[in-house]
């Protein structure tokens, strides 16, 4: 369109003018400029449309994988994908590592979702969580501080094979375990990954019938998915302040341990922080989440990722069981994704903030005290010298 | 603070020189102020000089020898036998499981396609051994009608039998307030519509994988849950917690009687074992009589778990 404004070769300017074909240079530039702006907006709109991921719908694994790559593209200075294992069916197990790059080794927060395939609200929460922290750190000073001091390691789907299986059709929707074939003589697939960790493995809350939904596997961390977490977190356990594992349903915040005979050494602290989280949850939409050790409020179990993490020395380890209370159960309607994620985020943030402040505000105070003591000590010696 | 000749004192140098107050008092003052601010901001902690240890506590790893040393015992049921007696913690599982049984009972008695009952809160509870094989529970709880969102406080009494010859639990609960929710018109309309319809209704997968149910199918989802409540009530023990995971199929059958008749396949989720249990039922419903289960049958359903036969 604007090309015609450049003039028509072969016709004299005078003639062009007479024929109304000659336009002023400025108009031509305006035209080009306008077209360029229009082009940019079209591209921009397309980019914006592409970036409008619907966090309030359930997504199949292929979309979650694309979304992870998009998060890195959109926030290259803050987000990286880390592959840390392979599932039984040889798919990459990945997490998003999120934090401001300081060049030093940082403390860390762990969040995993989707250990159990049918608990679809859990991966939805992990995606929401990532979106939320990436949005708020730019405007919220506290989140920015936390992003500087810690890295967030978020695994949106741990049991990828199982999750994909639940998307096959309506009859596979309620699958729980992974998709490994188990022992040779077993007629059924799958090990319960949340009974497979090396934490009082195989003692309570399990069934050694390999067809059972609480089959703990052939030995601790026999499953590649559990092994991946064990190796990744285990080789870095000193950096982790906090370990959250997300499940559904039941509206619970569970503290270690799952075995009724063992109590975590910081049980009181865990209960206090857990209750603070439940209160934060309640403030959002009035939903009650019960806090307690699993053998008290739910059932005894062993080999859970939470218990394993606590045994590694990670001080604040919690299991979240999200909505609902049994009406829809695993098949939580999509119109409940947003309120569930909002309340769970509030609860998780309470725990994360506590874990962060315990280490970082505490460090400031300690530095201050150390300086004071040096001053005072030297002051005494100085006084005698003078 | 510069000296007369213009240069600053060496206040950044060795500690000893720092403390020569006469030379750089203001540097010291500044440091003191900074420290005071730090202390003020972070609060005076109950501090020891040692740096924070992120739980290097060796006690984090529990004893490897459990108190009950009998490893050969099937641990799954063992700890359940030592059940709470006396006043119950309303947040703990014994009270929560008992309350769920009350929910199933209330749905068999008061439930309707337009009235579905759920436990909201357990306020208090009590349990005692009546005989060697029977335990009695008393509960104060709030229940609500999920559809109209009205809440009522009720009292309930249950007794469970344990050991051999397990019987369904016996429940006594009165929540008459729930009946005051007026649903007669809706029930009549539903009944007439499907009694006089030329075609028999049939629905599958309520809810679907994404949790959706078409609005005109919701009453049938509710009916599936109500019929299942009879089963869940019968099957409940102190070691179970049942919910309906899905109504896989509900199909209307022809009948000359004054009720609607259905064939129904539901999937129950049992929380403690985490199993999905399939049941088939034949049941009837009318506004006058409510739900009556004529037949029920547990289905063995392994095929989705089973491996394909080995070909080599």
Order of helices and strands of chain B: HHHEHEEEEHEHEEEE
Q: List the helices and strands of chain A in order.
A: HHHEEEHHEHHEEHEHHEH
Shape of chain A: globular
End-to-end Cα distance of chain A = 89 Å
The low-pLDDT segments of chain B are 1-22, 40-81
Structural class of chain B: alpha+beta
Strand coverage percent of chain B? 25-35%
Rg result of chain B: 33 Å
Find the count of extended strands of chain A (DSSP E, 2+ residues): 8
Helix run count of chain B: 6
Report the helical percentage of chain B. Answer: 25-40%
Average of per-residue pLDDT values of chain B: 80
Uncertain spans of chain A, ≥5 residues at pLDDT below 50?
45-49
Strand count, sense and barrel status of the largest sheet of chain B are: 5 strands, antiparallel
Computed over alpha carbons, the radius of gyration of chain A is 28 Å
Average pLDDT of chain A, rounded to a whole number, is 89
Strands of the widest sheet of chain A, in order across it, are 1-2-4-3-5-8-6-7
State the main characteristics.
heterodimer, A: 386 residues, alpha/beta, eight-stranded mixed beta sheet, 11 helices, 44% helix, 13% strand, globular, B: 312 residues, alpha+beta, five-stranded antiparallel beta sheet, 6 helices, 25% helix
Descriptive account of the structure:
Chain A: Keywords: Carboxypeptidase, Hydrolase, Membrane, Metal-binding, Metalloprotease, Protease, Transmembrane, Transmembrane helix, Zinc. The complex is a heterodimer of chains A (386) and B (312). By secondary structure, chain A is an alpha/beta fold. Chain A has helices at 13-18, 25-51, 61-74, 121-136, 141-149, 160-166, 224-234, 267-285, 294-297, 305-311, 337-385, and strands at 79-86, 92-98, 107-113, 150-155, 240-248, 252-255, 290-293, 316-322. An eight-stranded mixed β-sheet of chain A has the order 1-2-4-3-5-8-6-7, with helices on both faces. In chain A, helix 4 (121-136) crosses helix 11 and helix 8 (267-285) packs across helix 11 (337-385). A five-stranded antiparallel β-sheet of chain B has the order 1-2-3-4-5. In chain B, strands 6-7-8-9-10 form a five-stranded antiparallel β-sheet. Chain B starts with 14 loop residues before the first helix and ends in a 13-residue tail after the last strand. Residues 1-22 and 40-81 of chain B have low confidence and may be disordered. Classes of the chains: A alpha/beta (386), B alpha+beta (312). The interface between A and B is large, with 87 and 72 residues.
